[in-house]
Write a structure and sequence with these properties.
single chain; 7 helices; 42% helix
Amino acid sequence: MEIVIGISGASGSAYGVRILEILSGMDVTTHLVMTKAARQIIDIETDYSLDYVHGLATELHDENDFTASIASGSHRFDGMIVAPCSMKTLGEIAGGMSDNLLGRAADVCLKERRKLVLMPRETPLNQIHLENMLKLERAGAIILPACPGFYSRPQSIDDLVNSMAGRALDLVGVDNEVYKRWS
C-alpha cells in the first residue's frame, strides 16, 4: 500500500504526525508533503523536531516539487490524507488550484478517483468553508472534521489524537487498532 500524507498549516499537526508514526510501523510506503506553514505550526504546537517528522516518511517531498512522482496520475498510490487540512488548502483543492504539491496530489486523487481524506481543523465554520467542503464531498473527497468521539472515555490528548488518526486510516483502507471502536 502507498499513501500520501499532507500536513498543512492548520492547528492540529499532531494528527498528521501520529498518522505517520502509525504507518511507519506498517508495510506501507508513505509520501510526506508539508507546507511551510505546517512546519511552523509543528514547531509552535509540538515538541517534535522536523527531522523526526521527516524521518517517519518513506519519501519526503518539497511542497514546490511538481516533478515528484505523486504529482502524476500515472504514479499509482492508494490514497491521500491531509491532516490537518487548513481552510486555505481546502479552498485551493475545492477550486482546482494546484499551487503546490500538496494541492496537486489531492487533485490527482480526485481526477483518478482515489481516496482523499481531508481533516479540516477550524471552528467556527463560515458559509465559504461549508460550501468548499460540500463541493469536495461531491467531487469524491471524504471530509473528516477533527472532532474526536468521547464514547471511548479518552484519558489523554493522545487518546483523542489516536481516535482521529485511526479513523483517517480506516477511510483510506489501512487496518489499524489504534483507537477503541464502538461496540
